[in-house]
Amino acid sequence: MPKSSSHLLTNTEDYTLIQSQMQKLSTCHLVTRCNTFDLISQHFSFSEFSDNSLYCVNVLKDELLWAVAWLHRATGDQYYLKYTIDNAGYMGGTGWGMKEFSWDNKYAGVQVLLSKVLLEGKGGPYTSTLKQYQMKADYFACACLKKNGGYNIQTTPGGYNIRTTPGGLMYVREWNNLQYSSAAAFLLAVYSDHLSAANAKLNCPDGSVQPQALLDFARSQADYILGKNRQGMSYLVGYGPKYPIRVHHRGASVPSIFVQRSSVSCVQGFDSWYRRSQADPNVIYGALVGGPDQNDNYSDDRTNYEQSEPTLSGTAPLVGLFAKLSVGSYGGGYSKPYQTTKQQATSYKATPTTYTPKQSGAPIEFLHSITANWMAGNTRYYRHKVIIKNSSQKQISDLKLKIEDLSGPIWGLIPTGQKNTYQLPRWQKILRAEQTHDFVYVQGGPQAKVSVLSYY
């Protein structure tokens, strides 16, 4: 069982030091520094956890380099860049070639981020050291693509490349492997952007590689996660026709107090619900579980925490990865976003509409507005926000909408499978009197036509 939070910091003096330094740092401004970073770096050793505390990290030198690299990116202050150069060797930034990017190991991220400085031509006197950082970034990327040479990585985990399952999923370790796959895929997509912007290639021991290959591999990991695998299962809970339904998550597996009509204590939640074979009463939408084993096998069992536990460190990188895949290269089955056949328009004004069902006399209003617009190529795109309002004195449920002349993506509604027909999300099945629900879509040209098909 996990230790209590009081054991996370076992040294009271260390904790007191952290508190005192944080109080000093809170009075400083980021850009002017006020010796902020000096305070942290001077006391760096206090953070080197070496006991058996919960979620104890291996080292923190990568965290410090990661923070400094981002401070440089955010402020442009050469002080921070110089720190990453002066400490490149001592802190492992140019010494460690990584085969993972995770909550516990940021080196690959540091190396990719500092490679961007070099690729932008801003290395200056630090060019030679930044090239060493890029060599390690290349090592990570080449390992993902299995282009680092070496021996048979399928049977030798210690090889120069990252292992993959028979179905093509990156496999780093047994416990919650998908967090490593999603983080690596996101980082590869970012590095692909950096290389493409500089018109550069990835240099691997097995030959040069175009940046597109990194994005293609990242896409393959996303496809696997979303269901293109031997199990035919989406490991993103709530997405697709088949996904994990017994997630190792207390909020998902214990019914709401409004269903139970009584509170559930901590011990009772474990004793009564942890080992139940029934599906979760609450769907934890968007959570990425730990995923399958090295042979693509997955056991949908709440007690199988190594595979069924969701993590923020796994889910968070998917946001960036999916964003990139939705606007990046348009091959591989992904459609070009905001694509439209309408001619360029100069200006459009959104207009409100009201639907009054004859059978009840209760109006459902659609309040349209344009919240943003921008040019892309020769076309102006508009971000349309629509507020659905139940202006009646009674609740409505199972609302079905018909949306015509829609040529771009839409958020906040779910397609029903019928042409031009949408419904409210599962968590918003009912609109009470005077309640509203918003959805957003993006397209060029005039607003789409929204109307009511049915409701109860």
UniProtKB/TrEMBL annotation:
Catalytic residues in the record: 248
Single annotated GO MF: carbohydrate binding
Keywords: Carbohydrate metabolism, Cellulose degradation, Glycoprotein, Glycosidase, Hydrolase, Polysaccharide degradation, Secreted, Signal
Cross-referenced SUPFAM superfamilies: Six-hairpin glycosidases
Pfam families cross-referenced by the UniProt entry: CBM49, Glyco_hydro_9
Signal peptide positions on this chain: none
GO biological process entries: cellulose catabolic process
EC number: 3.2.1.4
Location(s), subcellular: Secreted
Annotated transmembrane regions: none
Top enzyme class: hydrolase
PROSITE patterns with a match to the protein in the record: GH9_2
Domain Carbohydrate binding: 364-444
Gene3D superfamilies found in the cross-reference section: 1.50.10.10
Entry's family note: Belongs to the glycosyl hydrolase 9 (cellulase E) family.
Protein name: Endoglucanase
